[in-house]
Fold this sequence. Notes:
Blueprint: E1 11-15, H1 20-32, E2 37-42, H2 45-54, H3 63-66, H4 98-110
Parallel strand pairs: 1-2
Pfam families: LysR_substrate
Protein name: HTH-type transcriptional regulator CynR
Organism: Photorhabdus namnaonensis
Amino acid sequence: MTTPRPVEGLRRILLSKDFATRSHIDLYFQKQGITPRIAIEANSISAIVEIVRRGRLATLLPDVIAHEQARLYSIAIQPTLPQRNAVLLWRSGAYRSAASQAFANLITHRFDVHQESDDF
């Protein structure tokens, strides 16, 4: 089994601590006994991606974001970070604008979402 040790010494740019994703990353490092070398914290994923693209830092981002980046390499880490779920909630029977309906349809079709209700 591959461990995260080979990337332990890399200098990183990570999301700032006010992001839930950062909390999951910090917990992962703690469980693996790793003290990350954090060079920069940022509150913008696009800024992090550009800094990594142009510099010599590494980052940890959700898989879906990592695979959409041109000219960057993603490396799977083992053990993997726990998967997180997201939900889209709205009040039953409430008015939904065309934009909110289009967004819900996009999400359900793009990510093969399982619907709890036929209200979409």
